[in-house]
Every structure is written in C-alpha cells, then in structure tokens.
Design a protein that fits this description.
The chain has 714 residues and is an alpha/beta fold. The protein has 3 domains: 272 residues, 2-enoyl-CoA Hydratase, Chain A, domain 1; 183 residues, NAD(P)-binding Rossmann-like Domain (Rossmann fold); 212 residues, Orthogonal Bundle (N-(1-d-carboxylethyl)-l-norvaline Dehydrogenase, domain 2). The protein contains 28 helices and 20 strands. The strands form 4 sheets. An 8-stranded mixed beta sheet has the order 13-12-11-14-15-16-17-18, with helices on both faces. It has a 7-stranded mixed beta sheet with strand order 1-2-3-4-6-8-10, with helices on both faces. Strands 5-7-9 form a 3-stranded parallel beta sheet. The longest helix is centred in the middle third of the chain and has 21 residues. It is globular and about 90 Å long.
C-alpha cells in the first residue's frame, strides 16, 4: 500500500479506524480497520467524524478516501446485524449521503477489494480511481440481502440495469479493467494510486473553485438510464429469470433496481432500505449469515499458526471411486500426482475410472479438452510404493477395511521421505488409533472428503494428539488449494460428516420401516432444501461403504436395539447403488433412478416379519425426525470434543452433506427453534427407539444452565 504523499502532514489527532493526513489542500482519510476494513460501528463513527472535520476545515479543498491493507473495504460487519443499532453512530446510507452531498470533491482511491458497503461508499464519491489489484462487487445476495446503502440506486445510474443486475444477482466480483469498461470507475493507476488521487483531487478542487467544473454526484447521473426501454427490458428479464427463486433476495434486488428508474432518488433510497431491513429480518438471511460466519470461524484452530510444508507432488494410493476423484482433483490444482495401485490390473481399472471422470467433465462443459490433457500429463502411474518416495503428501484411499489400510499405511511410512505427510481416509479411527497407524504419528492425519469430491466443498482433517502442527497446516493448505473448506476435527470414529449422515440415515430407516418409502423421505428432505435425500446419497456413494461401517459396528451393537436390515439385504443381493444399476432405486431409465417395486416389496416383508403395520407418514414428520436426529447427534459430537464449536458441525453439514445453506445448519436450526423444543421432540420420538432418541446430556445441561449451543466452546 502506498503511504501518504511526500510532504504530507497530520490533520489533527488520528481517529480510531481512520488515519487522517493532509497534503496541501487535500485531506486523505485512510481507512484502517484490519483485517478487511469492515464497515462496523467503530469505523463508521471514525469515518463520519473525519469527514465532518475535513468538510468543516476551510483549509481543505478536497478529500481522498483511501484505505490501508489489502482491502479498500470488505463490506459491512455482519456480526452487528443481530445487535441493536447505536443511535449515536450513523448507518452507511447517511455516511454515503454525506460524501455525495459534500461541497468539496471527494475521490475514492481503491487499492484492493471494494465489496458491499465498501463499493457503496465508493459509488457515493464524486470520482473513483483504482489500482491493478482492485476488485468490485455487491455480494449481498449470498447473505440473503440486497445492498442497503444505495447500491441498487447508484450502480444502475452509472452502468445500466442489465450490468448492475448481473453483478448484484450473481454476487460476483469484477477487476479494474472490466469495472472501467462498465463505467463503474473513472480511471486506472498502475502505480502511485494515492499520490495520483491527491493530484486529481487538487486539480478538480481548483476547477470547481474557478467555476469551470461542477461536482459529479452519482444520484444525478443518468448514464445508465438513457435508454429507458432497455432498462425496463433488463428488469423484466431478471424478474422472469428469478420468479421461482426459493429465496426472496433476488426478487427484492430487481424491485429496487426498477425503483431506481421509477422513483426520485431519495424515495428510491428509502425503498431500498425498507427492502434491506425486511430481508435482514428474514430467517433465510439469518441462516446464510450464520453459515458465512461459521465458515470463517473454522479457520481458527490450534495449529493455524504453524508453517505448512511445501507440497509439489501428491501420491494417491487406491483408485477406486473416491481415490480416482481425489487424484483428478489434485492434478486439476497443479500438483504432480503419482497414482499407485496394488497390481497392474487394478491400476489400469483405476486409470480408466479417472479417464471416465474427465470425459464426463468435458462432455458437461466443466472441463476443456486442453485442460483434460494437461491434467492427464500430471498423472504418473505406479505399482511399487517405493515410487511414492518423491511425494510430499500421500493420500491413502484403499478399500475401507482396517487391515488393508493398516498394511498400506505401514508400508508408506517406511517408503516415504521423512518430511512427507501421510493422510488416511480411515474415518473409523480414534485419536489413539490414528497415532498407532504408523510409526510416524506426527506426520499422520485423517483426510476425509465426501466420496463425490467434485460436488463438495468440504475436507475434514482428523488430528490425533500426536500429530505435528506442521502436518495439520500442510493438510489444510492442500485442501484449501484444492478449493475445499478445511475443517480441523479431533480424530474420532466417524469424525463429523459420516457420523451425522449415519444419524440421519438411522432416523430415515425408522421412518421407512414405519410406513414411508425411500422416495418419500428423499423428496420430503429435498423439498425442505437438502441437495439430495439420504437414499439418493447412498446410491451415489455406493451402499457397500455404509454396509462396511455397519459390519464394523455390529459387535458393539445392543441386540435389543432397533435395527433396520433393508440396507444390508440390498448389499447382500448385489444392489450397490448406481454403479450396479440398482440400490434403493433402479437406474434403468437414466441417471436419476426411479422407485423400485422390488425394494418396496422387500420393505413390506420386513415390516410383516416384525409385526409393523405401515402407517401414513407426512413430510413434516419426516423433516422433524431427521433434523432432530441430526441436532441430537451433533450435541454428542460437541460434548465429546470432536469439534470446539457447534457452528463447525453446521459447516460440515452445509459444505459437505448437502444441508441447505439458508437453513444455517442443524445446530443453528435447533438453537433458533429452542433447545426445549428439541428436547420435547426427542422425548416424543423415544417410544419407538429409546436407545437412539435418548436426549444428549449436553442438551439437558445447557437447558439447566440457561445456555445455548453457540455458548459451548465460546
């Protein structure tokens, strides 16, 4: 970041959050609120006070609003959205109005990201210039909101309805070249941005003083509104495109952009603010904001400050469904990948699996043929594990069997270089078991990515007490480079995702044994917002994986506990899901599958053998039972110390298990509805399977102490 211009001097005492300097007749207000210069209360108060001081000082002829750090401003501080407003601190619309209506030129010097409220502040300035690293966007739709400080009113005045709606409805960012071509900014500066802004501000101030120029206020601009018919057409097209949206934010953004054309500016601003306030109070926005903040919290973990080891070559052992996807994912992210299998036949089959995945991606348009060829060139096949000695990280993805995994991991520990990190996919290990898996416990982690790795953003990193911080940091860094959201968890059987999914499946199995069908369960959860239902997930993942886990758990299962055998019977009859064309559904009419009469007949036989009379089960009951099971299991996971925060469980479910993002997560939903409601539901369900529906002790404890799930670990 460039410092103040040479010869600049302080303009009175520094106001917290804004560093004020003066260069001749130009005041530079440099926003300073690390890490992202979020427009929280303290920064808004400081900015408003600094503006008032500069505007009231007759020695100041112009103002430059700049920033320090990598960001101009990352936007509003959404943590404050659920807190009472402080009447002594102005909101962003008032600050933007103060800037725009100033009788002195105000120039925005944008050196980094100007997002949300940060861009709205820049839009209220009389001119905007930017450096080569600048980025611009109004991403509020991703939080279930519309811009609330004039973005829907000022932006279309500058760039038109079509371009403005494209930005706001997608939430995407644009770089400085595109921003200039759109008319969003007035100029680019390759070097010396702040000095250039000071010079420009002084020149404009002189021209205004001489009467050769008037200030260009965005509220008065009509650049983007000259073609009224095109403006209306863009609004109509966007309204039609989002007419069936499940969430309200997009529709409200369209309405606000329409209001920018139909209403006087001040009325349009009031219209926008009313829409913003309505959306902020909506449950959808609350859930999205929770998910957003929860994803940022998972970046804080005990080993976060450790230095990651350099990783250039990654080994993948086992090219089954999961391993093939992981190998391809690593190659796509620029790593050299050495793929190893137990013999030549398995290696050929695995490489064919990788090739099939690539061709599917090319056919769908997700991958170009050139990118496919580059990825393939990064793959090096091997049979001898000694070939992996070059690797910096090796991911074991062999058959989900403890004997096989132990044998492979022991061989890897002996073959690899001393600084290599070993990652196993064995999610059934305890921390102690992970530590014993090799004679290199400090280098060993669990790396769990959902089997459909290219459809998930999640990577769970399982850590034992003996895992070195550098190994954890390395696994997290590789996961992030691969586009994954890394969640550090304590190694424990099932980690978080598989354990939560098992609880969901158990509740669903009870429902189908009582009278529902797999399709009814899946459709009820999808109607509520899940990406897929549990039986669709099982068929895509492969029924044999869940079956193997059930077999491992069988010796410790209470013989008197309720157990639904349908999944076992399907596997034992060769129905493994989509891979074999039959699972819970039959796949004889395309990839989507359809309900299989044979499965329904088998389900009826199981009910009859147990004396269960099928009863009608509605979607509400399916939803409530499944979500209660998830929250209860999450409370057990939390109390066992697998994760430190309830919100970490929500991240795993949203990013990796298809839980609807706008619902926040199962723990957020439970807390929002109230723990007393959750406990009452669990007690009501307990008569059918007491051992499963027993209320987690943590829930009773929090209710007794008057605390919330979000208080745990805070």
């Amino acid at each position: 970041m460039n410092g103040p211009a040479q010869g600049s001097k302080d303009l009175g005492p520094e106001t917290e959050g804004v560093r004020v300097t003066r260069d001749g007749g130009v005041a530079v207000l440099a926003i300073h609120a690390p890490p992202v210069n979020a427009m929280g209360r303290l920064l808004r108060a400081a900015l408003d006070a600094s503006l008032k001081q500069a505007l009231a000082d007759p020695a100041i002829q112009a103002i430059v609003i700049a920033a320090e750090g990598r960001h101009f401003s990352g936007g509003a501080d959404i943590r404050e959205f659920d807190q009472p407003a402080d009447p002594a601190v102005p909101l962003m619309p008032a600050i933007c109005d103060r800037v725009e209506l100033a009788d002195k030129p105000v120039i925005a010097a944008i050196q980094g990201s100007a997002l949300g409220a940060g861009l709205e502040l820049a839009l209220s300035c009389h001119l905007r210039i930017a450096g080569p690293q600048a980025k611009f966007g109004l991403p509020e739709v991703g939080l279930g909101l519309c811009p609330g400080a004039g973005g829907t009113q000022r932006l279309p005045r500058l760039i038109g309805a079509q371009a403005a709606l494209r930005l706001m409805l997608s939430g995407r960012t644009v770089g400085p070249a595109e921003a200039q071509s759109l008319g969003l900014i007035d100029g680019l500066v390759e070097d010396g941005l702040r000095e250039a802004a000071i010079t420009l501000a002084a020149e404009i101030a002189a021209e205004v003083a001489a009467g050769r120029r008037t200030l260009s206020r965005t509220r008065d601009r009509m650049d983007g509104m000259r073609d009224a018919a095109a403006y209306q057409g863009a609004v109509a097209a966007s309204r039609a495109a989002h007419a069936k949206d499940r969430l309200p934010a997009a529709g409200r953004i369209v309405e606000c952009v329409e209001a920018a054309q139909l209403l006087p500016f001040d009325q349009g601003m009031a219209f926008e603010r009313a829409a913003f306030d309505d959306l902020r109070a909506s449950p959808e926005s609350a859930g999205l904001r929770h998910a957003f903040l929860a994803e940022r919290r998972v970046a804080t973990f005990p080993e976060a400050g450790a230095a990651a080891r350099l990783v250039q070559t990654v080994g993948v052992v086992g090219l089954g469904r999961s391993g093939a996807r992981i190998a391809l994912q690593m190659a796509a992210n620029g790593y050299r990948v050495i793929t190893a299998e137990r013999d030549a036949e398995a290696l050929v089959a695995g490489l064919e699996r990788v090739s099939d995945l690539q061709e599917q991606a090319v056919a769908s348009g997700r991958l170009t043929s050139e990118a496919r060829d580059r990825e393939w060139e990064r793959l090096t096949p091997a049979i001898d594990l000694a070939a992996l000695s070059q690797c910096d990280l090796v991911i074991e993805a062999v058959t989900d069997d403890f004997g096989s995994k132990s044998e492979v991991m022991a061989a890897l520990a002996a073959a690899l270089n001393p600084r290599a990190v070993l990652a196993t996919s064995a999610t059934f290990l305890t921390g102690e078991g992970l530590g014993r898996l090799t004679d290199r416990p400090a280098d060993t982690v669990i790396l769990r990515q959902p089997a459909l790795a290219d459809r998930s953003r999640l990577a769970e990193i399982g850590v034992s007490p003996g895992t070195a911080p550098e190994a954890v940091a390395t696994a997290v860094a590789v996961a992030r480079k691969s586009g994954r959201l890394a969640v550090r968890v304590a190694a424990a059987p099932g980690l978080v995702g598989p354990r939560m999914q098992a609880a969901l499946r158990t509740a669903a199995d009870f429902l189908i044994e009582d009278g529902a069908t797999p399709l009814q369960v899946d459709m009820a959860l999808r109607a509520w917002g899940f990406a897929m239902g549990p039986y669709q997930v099982s068929d895509m993942d492969g029924l044999d994986k869940d079956w193997a886990e059930r077999q491992r758990a069988a010796p410790g299962r209470d013989p008197a506990a309720r157990y639904v055998e349908l999944g076992d019977l399907l596997v034992e009859s060769g129905r493994l899901g989509q891979e074999t064309g039959r699972g819970y559904y039959i796949y004889d009419q395309g990839p989507g599958g359809r309900e299989d009469p044979e499965v329904l007949a088998l389900l009826a036989e199981l009910r009859a053998a147990k004396g269960i009379v099928a009863r009608p089960i509605g979607s509400d009951e399916i939803r409530d039972r499944c979500l209660a099971a998830l929250a209860n299991e999450g409370a057990r996971i939390l109390s066992e110390g697998v994760v430190p925060r309830a919100s970490d469980i929500d991240v795993v479910m949203v990013a990796g298990q298809g839980f609807p993002r706008w619902q926040g997560g199962p723990m957020f939903r439970a807390e929002t509805r109230g723990l007393l409601v959750l406990r009452a539901e669990l007690r009501r369900f307990a008569d059918q399977a007491p051992e499963f529906w027993t209320v987690a002790p943590l829930i009773d404890q929090l209710i007794r102490d008057g605390r919330k799930l979000s208080d745990f670990g805070a």
